[in-house]
Specification:
By secondary structure, the protein is of the alpha+beta class. The protein has helices spanning 3-15, 66-71, 90-94, 100-104, 107-121, 126-129, 132-138, 163-173, 269-275, 283-286, 298-301, 358-366, 394-397; strands spanning 42-47, 50-59, 62-65, 139-141, 146-148, 156-159, 190-192, 198-200, 205-206, 209-212, 221-224, 228-229, 232-238, 257-264, 267-268, 289-291, 296-297, 305-306, 326-327, 330-336, 344-350, 377-379, 405-406, 412-413, 421-429, 434-445. The chain is globular.
Amino acid sequence: MSAASEQQAAAALAATRDPSRRSWIDAANDPACDFPIQNLPFGIFSHPGNTTPRVGVAIGDQIVDLAALSDAGLLILPDPSAVDFDVTNAARVFANPALNDFIALGRDTWRGVRKQLSALLSSGNATLRDNEALRESMLVPIAEATLHLPLQIPGYTDFYSSKEHATNVGAMFRDPKNALLPNWSEMPIGYNGRASSVVVSGTPVRRPNGQLKLPDADRPVYGACRKLDIELETGFVIGRGNSLGEPIGCEDAEDHIFGMVLLNDWSARDIQQWEYVPLGPFNAKTFATTISPWVVTLDALEPFRVAQPAQDPQPLPYLRHAGAHAFDVSLEVELRAEGAAASTTISRTNFRHMYWTMAQQLAHHTVSGCNTRVGDLMGSGTISGPTDGSFGSLLELTWNGQKPVALDGGGKRSFIEDGDELTLKGWCQGNGYRIGFGACAGRILPAHPAQG
Ligand code: CA
């Protein structure tokens, strides 16, 4: 690309983030809407009129059907010959039941699609705005759609990168005087999670059975988890993998990220406490992980980039990056008891508090030569802020059940009860608009009868 055309491409991308840009879809212009024209997150949807899951983009209260748009010749993949991928039919990529093949086309393609969609949906563009038949075949109300897991997830890794969370948990489970282990400040601690049990928002979650060891007992019992919890996290999605044996440098790491989702890493605290020494959590975390259905691209999040917290000691060279690599994402957790009229906001915090950045997590993950693949999911770790009401788990909010949280309209919670619905929400607040993630929700079903 010549310098002039590169400049032109950068200007066109910047225009998709222009806060003054408006859409002819009215709901998108509501300042409280999660999906303004500046967002354009990708997901997988179906609806009664077409039950085949395929790629869509959320705008306002609508989903744009990219397969239909592509079939109509209104969405062109920028330069198929330039990508290292077998692109014979763009509609096939958008007609897939997962985003992976689209993501594999590469960042220039994501950006090309973003620019075309932003133009088509802008208030001044008449192509769809003034053509009712086209609009009817391209748009589906979100309220009428089923949202599916957006990715085929080859691997799921979960980090532990909030200093406040690691300190709180270390104080409760080990030793308040040495809550943070010495390795924590030197690297983003993580473990390999379980991709098979990642589910999309709205999927019910079954309370797990497992081994529980009561404080005074010699041996464990088998039974239903009594300390079921959430973990408020974000996740990032790998957009470009690396080859086995070839680490990703910290400075290049964001080029490998497609976008972000909200993530609830459901946790069974009693199972966790008994099983986690010496190899870390296993059954306490593998029964379900819920993600939000829309993947918000780094291109949409760019205006909300902020400096990460100061790091002391200075990280080793392979974990250093110049510039700002945290993102200002407001986060909330709501709990609604079964049959309750209202939900209670039990936590408010922000992703910007995270000590280790996504770039550092990815650089550390691959420093050994571990390969990553398109669609891999990386959890941030529980996001806890510095104050009591900003903790990202009930374990911390109630201090292991000692200080139950009061629910609006009566009742209280130490841990999650059957029938409770937990919802994570997240958004970046712009001037007059916000880049939202939609909801990440799950309701708890009773455990199967224990017959251990
Ligand atoms: Ca976690």
